[in-house]
Amino acid sequence: MLGLAHVQAANAARDPMCAPLKAFVASIAPKESKQVLFRTSWFGGFKDDPQTERSVMAKRCDDSGYAPGRTLCDALITYGVTEFAELNAMSAIHCLAPDMRFGRHTTLRRIDLEISSGTDSRGSFITLHFAPDEAIGGNVLTITAKGY
């Protein structure tokens, strides 16, 4: 029987958002910083977009004009969860920090997490921020990578 840790690690390996996330993080040059913002709204849309006002669900992603960010945004838009948006943050954490575990019934309302990816001499410091977006509604997952 596989333990929960093995199941979570296996799920991260199969997650279609993991490879684009790892590629985004790996693409950041030293002393460079890039960010992706993935917004989701379940029953309510976004305050700054009247077309989403009556939407059951809405998603949008800001890649800041960075090609690896666009690839990550494409994966988030295609595979990201809207109703239980915290699962997107948990998926990103499992991808980048596979040893980190959540209990079976964990629900996140907000999280700020800083991790590193790469070697001692080259890689990225990554900040994952997930929280309700008071300004425009819904939730936002912000992924910031700073190269070293």
How would you briefly describe this protein structure?
The protein has 148 residues and is an alpha+beta fold. The protein has helices at 4-14, 18-26, 67-79, 86-96; strands at residues 33-42, 57-62, 111-118, 123-132, 139-147. β4 and β5 form a beta hairpin.
Q: How many helices in DSSP terms?
A: 4
What is the residue-mean pLDDT, rounded to a whole number? Answer: 91
Number of domains: 1
Question: Could you give the order of strands across the largest sheet?
Answer: 2-1-5-4-3
Unreliable residue stretches: 1-10
Describe the biggest sheet? 5 strands, antiparallel
Structural class: alpha+beta
Gyration radius, rounded: 15 Å
Order of helices and strands: HHEEHHEEE
Query: What proportion of the residues is helical, as a percent range?
Result: 25-40%
Q: How would you describe this structure to a colleague?
A:
- By secondary structure, this protein is an alpha+beta fold.
- The protein has one domain (4-147).
- It has 4 helices and 5 strands; from the N terminus they run ααββααβββ.
- The chain has helices at residues 4-14, 18-26, 67-79, 86-96, and strands spanning 33-42, 57-62, 111-118, 123-132, 139-147.
- A 5-stranded antiparallel β-sheet has the order 2-1-5-4-3, with helices on one face.
- α2 runs antiparallel to α3 (67-79) and α2 packs across α4 (86-96).
- The protein is globular and about 50 Å long.
- The N and C termini lie far apart (40 Å).
- Mean pLDDT is 91; it is low at 1-10.
